[in-house]
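FAQ: What does the model actually see?

It sees only this:
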Amino acid sequence: MVLRADAQRNLDRLLAAARECFAERGIDVSVDEVARRAGVGHGTAFRHFPTKDALVSAVIRKELEELIELADEALLDPDPGAGFERYFRAMAAAYGKNQGLVEGFKRCIETEQAQALLAGAARLVERAQACGAVRPELDADDVLALIKPASEYPDVILAGLRPEAASISR
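And it is asked to produce this:
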């Protein structure tokens, strides 16, 4: 469905405002606050997103699409270790900037985008393991669980993911 130009502008402003609000304060922000920040009325917000869950899902889908694109780019890197590191740092930075990303992701875990993100992360980890850049006993879930602390300490976490760190920890 093609929207009128003004309706498309309102939709774009709502999504941008929701993204900012969720990033700053998490997904508990009210739709009214998002509408206020977007400069639109309550009714306009609910015409585009009949429920708050619909708004959260739209924002998280957009975030996931961007992260999937980053994974796809990292998978093209001829150096699997460098591609993995670049992606891991990008994921950590995204989490550090967006408090609502992980909470929203958990709500959208069954979506096609979430599953594509998880599959891309798994391929990146497997490629990095195959070239000896990531410890072999870890899987994608282990690596993704480290994204939150990596938002503050990426170098420390990345060092711990390398195979040589396994001999230090024993």
